[in-house]
């Protein structure tokens, strides 16, 4: 669903004229914001008040961007970098306001333009309900992976999780171990009670798979959990060709910011090690891109003319930057690549857009 971000500036002072680097050093990512509890503009106001308060080690706020493309996440930019540092040093942030039904713990971290700055996914833990008290399972996951932010558990067993991509991967590994353990327990029970084995199915993992694909683990199949942006970038380069050379086929399941890549052998008689090598190659490439890729986002006001200008500019600049991936959306355009490529690409696009602003839409199309 397309959402419009409310950008609020604190009254009085104007945003400082600063370069991208200095602004990023004054910006924090805030996650754990309750989604859908209040209107977006009200929540943006509450966030500004929170980060202006002295008890939260806050100060003058240059701007608040909320909502963003990631549910429950906002960007807060302070006028002074020292305030940013003080806010980050505070061990706990609790979002409190009389307009909120309760207090909400927030996770605050320094802004990064890396592709992996913050992603979210929805887990369906209902399949673990027969063997675990789900509230206890969530508490265990929170304790083991402290870098993640968990929403309240829903009655249907679903829960929203936010954090860095490596942390999401750790969560996936943790849940897979538990799912495999439950599966083994089921198999032992079937051997001991054969008369019931034909009338009951393995519940554990099945209901989880329906909503949360990365719990699935079929025989003769390998899976890789990837950030969606990085997966698109991998496809943009050499991914499909490298798999074909290893006699491996793939299918993808994309759920928002997470993409699960399922790998299978072309022929059942193929060397099993080829599947493992293909999986390792993708994981190694993903790790390499994790450390190299950055993302620049061009925010759009929603007008057809502005979208046309930016798309046209990106198309004109693209041939000079073959290793840059451009992904257009309704409200913004994402540009992914190396730091140097992104900087050069963005500068040229901005220059062309300024030039287009002096022209009518018809004149721009002609060019």
UniProtKB/TrEMBL annotation:
It holds the Pfam family NID. Residues 1-25 are annotated as: Disordered. It comes from the Eukaryota. PROSITE patterns: RRM (PS50102). The keyword RNA-binding applies. Keywords: RNA-binding. Residues 26-113 form the RRM domain. The keyword RNA-binding applies. GO terms for molecular function: RNA binding. SUPFAM superfamilies: RNA-binding domain, RBD. This is RNA-binding protein 43 isoform A. It comes from Alligator mississippiensis (American alligator). The lineage of its organism: Eukaryota, Metazoa, Chordata, Craniata, Vertebrata.
